[in-house]
Structures are given as structure tokens and as C-alpha cells.
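User: I'm putting together notes for a lab meeting next week and I want to include a structural view of one of the chains we've been expressing. I don't have a solved structure, so I'd like a prediction I can at least talk through. The sequence is below, exactly as it appears in our construct file.
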Amino acid sequence: MSTSKNQFTRFRIINKCLSSRRKKYWTRQEILDELEKYDIVVSVRTISYDVELMKYDGNLGFFAPIEFCNRNKGYYYTDPDYSIENVPLTKAEFKILANSLSFLKYKSAFKEFESVVDKLLRVGSQVTRQYDTSSIIDFEKAPYYKGEEFIDPLINYIRAKQPLKIKYQKFNSDQPSDYLVHPYYLKEYRNRWYLLCLHEELEELRTFALDRIIKLEPALLYYKENPLEEPSEYFENILGVTVATGPIEQIVLSFRPEYAPYLKTQSIHHSQKILLDNEVEFRIELKLIPNFELTSVILSYGKKLKVLAPESLKEKIESER
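Assistant: Thanks for the context. Below is the predicted structure for the 321-residue chain, given as C-alpha cells.
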């Protein structure tokens, strides 16, 4: 059965009426009057049909104890403590919930969300224990890395539109430096997190790796709004997080044929397009701005991958091998 949003609203209003402590019996007209307060106009027949669904429909799972009193000409709950808001989940629903929460528990990077998942797992634990997936699924658990503790504070600072002073030490630097930034967006790439922000002095968008942040604190600055309507678009035409200058290039890569199944099921980038697929070669095209991450991925394949275009990327890879 397909149930519309409007119909669920009617169910909740009918439930609100029948759960009321101030009035036990509700006539059809009184329920219609309540619905009109929410700009819902239906017929008496619709009310009767809704009540039947609330009582008997297995997909809804309410099985509401509704009866009609002929003497008082109205509907009522035979159980005064009943409410559809208190209806427990079915075993099938618990199974779906348990599987979903197990996945979230291992994949969540946010401590505050992790605690919510734990609480949900404890609710109805006797039922969800039947569907424990730990013996049949082994999720990849990201190792702890320095900077993980900044994720939750940064989420709060971004929401609050709070400029920050960041003490940051690059890998190739002996001493940390201070930066004033306006935080906008957090992005994960290969189990590491990066902050997209506006550099106060340079007036440029920059990314800072959280594992290289030593300290962050609020800065006394007026917040500068994000110039991007969709921050995720900033990373649209690159691999990873390092945004390089230059045009989008048509990158053509040639692999040995045994890599075809892997690259078909897990693309290097969403722009990936298959150009050739036979017993001799698997060739793809990517439309990207070449950057550090792309170079690293290409080099990881060694000589089992050839760069066919552009020439500048081909030369760079050959010089670094």
C-alpha cells in the first residue's frame, strides 16, 4: 500500500483526537473539524476509511484499538494509553535498523553521532541482538590519526560561522605557522579529513589537512561568507583535495586488461569513461585538472599503467618513476 504524506497527517490528527485526555469520544464531524484546522478537507467516508486502515492495515502496523460507540456517536481508543506515536517497530523494521546502525557505527567519524548510534543500538537491544552482523561482516575501521579530535569542533564553528586562528605545520616545515581563516566545509579523502576555508590574508580558498593542525581557536574577525553556492563543487574537477591551477584536461590512461574488472566496479573519478576494453588493453578517459593526488594514484600502478595524454602529464609521470 502506498501512503501519501497527507494521509499520514490525517492519521496523526485522528490519533491526537482519540488520545486526548480531555475528551474520550469523537464524532466524525468533530474529527473533520480538527482536520480543517490544518487545512485538510476530506469527506466522512475518508475518515471511516482512515480508521479502518489504522485498525487493520498490516503495512502500517498501527493495529489501533479503535471502536465506535453508538450511544455517544463517536470513535474512541479502548486502551486509553495507546498512541500510534508509541507503536514499537516490527521485527523486520528492527532488522533493517540494526543492520543500518551497525554500518553507521563503524563508518561514523563524528563522536557526537557515534553516541547517538550507540543509544539507538541500546534501545530495543534484545531484539537487535538477534540481528548482530559482527560475525558475518567486517567493516574497514579507519585507524586513529592526529587531527581527528578537530572534526566535531570544526563542525560547530562552521555552523556558527566563526572565523578561526589555526596553528598549522606543513610536512616540509620545521616550525608551525598561524593562519586566519573562514571555515566552510569538511571533506574526507582516503580516511583523512580536510578543511576548506577562505584564507584571510590571501583572499583565496585553501584546504588544510586536519592531521597537520596543532591548534585552532576563534578569531576576532567579521565572518566572510562562502563564495561558493555548493562547496562540494570546488572539488568537482579534481581527484582528492589539492586544487591545482589550470584547465580541465582530457586524461587518457592505458591499463593491462586484468585491471578492467576493478576499474569498472570502482572508478578512479566520476568522470571516468571507458575508451577500449579488450584482451590486450583497458583504456579510460578522465576529465580532470591534474594534481598531486592524481599523480600519486597513477604512480601506484607502476609500469602496469601508461599515460597516453596529455603530454605534460605523461612527461611528469615518466620523470618520477
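A couple of points you could mention at the meeting. Residues 57 and 63 are 7 Å apart (CA to CA). The longest helix spans residues 91-107.

User: Perfect, that's what I needed.
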